[in-house]
Design goal:
The chain is mainly alpha-helical. The protein has one domain. Helix content is about 65%, strand content about 0%. It has five helices and no strands. Helix 2 runs antiparallel to helix 5 and helix 4 packs antiparallel against helix 5.
């Protein structure tokens, strides 16, 4: 019985597991922490003041980080009870997981 080459290749990739994932650089961690913390602070302030958070968040000129802010705004609109820390943690994890391959 012959084993298809595609099956062998996919089994090899699965066996490699986490070794294929890219390590997160310190600069990415710092950028994600900074953007998520500032955005969370702004969103929570706006919600407490009964202001639309989307009008208060200062947009960053990077599509990757804009996506993080949009994700955080959506999360806050669906779960307004989230604390600043919870929102920042959510934004940080999303930011790190969606970072561009070149970072």
């Amino acid at each position: 019985m012959r084993i298809p080459a595609a099956f062998v290749a996919s089994a090899t990739l699965l066996a490699a597991g986490p070794a294929l994932s890219q390590e997160v650089s310190d600069s990415v961690k710092q950028t994600c922490r900074s953007v998520s913390s500032q955005t969370a602070r702004t969103i929570v302030y706006a919600l407490r003041a009964n202001i639309d958070p989307a009008t208060q968040v200062r947009r960053v000129p990077d599509s990757w980080l804009e996506g993080v802010q949009a994700h955080m705004l959506l999360a806050a609109s669906r779960a307004p009870h989230l604390s600043e820390e919870e929102l920042a943690a959510l934004g940080y994890s999303y930011c790190v997981s969606r970072r561009p391959a070149d970072r």
